Amino acid sequence: MVEATDENKKILSMMLFSGPYGSQDADHMCRIGKKAIEMGYKVQIILYGDGVHAQLTGQRPKVFMNIGEELKDLAEQGAVIKSCVRCSQARGYVDGEFDEKEDRYPSSKSLDAVKIYSLYGFINMIKNTDKLITFGSG
Amino acid sequence: MKRICLLITKPPHDDESANRMCGISKLARQKEMEVAVYLLGDGVLCAKKNQKGFVGQNIKEALENGVDIKASENDLHARAIPHEQVESGITVLGDLEEAFLEDIMEKADRVISW
């Protein structure tokens, strides 16, 4: 276990390129994210391409890991989760223009735990990360 | 000495990931780098013994070249692969995620994931 203050915690970033339930990519990402937080690391998640479907509200898989609930849990434990606005807009998640006050694009279909954000905002996330791993293919 | 970690979550022959993993491992070892490969999810199928295709041969060569290969026990069990069917030299871990994170966050210089 890594003991560190929040400021000097190492940061793991993960990008998800494929949608949930078609493969185990989202499962792996959530399991690794959960373990990373347990081990004392900060976690950042970027949903991109079909990965943005992981942000959909109301997911109710009968037998698979519920990715929506996993993302909520990760966010509650401090993970920062953002999804690409272009990918989200293409797939029908974005309801309007950027909300400066909420610091996100509005969406009635996305989990509160996930902020829809400009791709340019991801650059700083990646710049400040110690390690970046990706799941799925674009 | 530089260290790289490779994470494989895809099965052999489904796409090029296992082949690339073997190729990169070989080149990294030629440059005297430490190489650790983590097999997760369907990636554990790369660990299966007696594969006749090029991936099976490449995995054996990687092990002979000193590549450290670890496979997730949970994912092997999920796919009904007992320890006896795992290629000799591959380490089976109960908590692969923890070992992987410890490696990439505290030891490895670079990580590549497929």
Summarize the structure.
Chain A is of the alpha/beta class.
What would the keywords be for this entry?
heterodimer, A: 138 residues, alpha/beta, five-stranded parallel sheet, 18% strand, globular, B: 114 residues, Hypothetical Protein Ychn, Chain: A, 4 helices
Characterization of the model:
The complex is a heterodimer of chains A (138) and B (114). Chain A is globular and about 35 Å long. Chain A is built from 4 helices and 5 strands; from the N terminus they run E-H-E-H-E-H-E-H-E. In chain A, strands 4-3-2-1-5 form a 5-stranded parallel sheet, sandwiched between helices. Chain A is 28% helix and 18% strand. In chain A, helix 1 runs parallel beside helix 2 (67-76). Chain B has 4 helices and 5 strands; from the N terminus they run βαβαβαβαβ. Chain B has helices at 17-30, 54-64, 73-78, 96-106, and strands at 3-8, 34-39, 68-72, 91-93, 110-113. A 5-stranded parallel sheet of chain B has the order 4-3-2-1-5, with helices on both faces. In chain B, helix 2 links the parallel strand 2 (34-39) and strand 3. The chains are: A alpha/beta (138), B alpha/beta (114). Chain A binds chain B through residues 2, 10, 12, 24-25, 27-28, 31-32, 35-36, 39, 41, 130-135, 137, and chain B through 7, 9, 15, 40-42, 95, 97-98, 100-102, 104-106, 108, 111, 113.
Rough shape of chain B?
globular
CATH superfamily of chain B: DsrEFH-like
Q: Most extensive interface: pair and counts? A: A-B, 20 and 18 residues
CATH class division of chain B: Alpha Beta
Provide the spatial order of strands within the biggest beta sheet of chain B.
4-3-2-1-5
Shape of chain A: globular
Over all CA atoms, what is the radius of gyration of chain B? 13 Å
Q: Average pLDDT value of chain A?
A: 93
Domains of chain B (count): 1
Percent of residues in helices of chain A: 25-40%
Order of helices and strands of chain B: EHEHEHEHE
Please give the radius of gyration of chain A in angstroms.
14 Å
